[in-house]
Amino acid sequence: MTEPAKPTPTDQGRKRDLATIHVAKKQLGMDDDTYRSMLWAVGRVKSAGDLDFAGRRAVLDHLKACGFRHHRPQAQDPQSRKIRALWLELKALGALRDSSEEALAAYAERVTGVQALQWLSSDQASQVIEQLKAWRRRLAQEARTLALKEGEAACRR
Question: Residue 141: which residues within 8 A CB-CB, separation 6 or more?
Answer without folding.
Answer: none
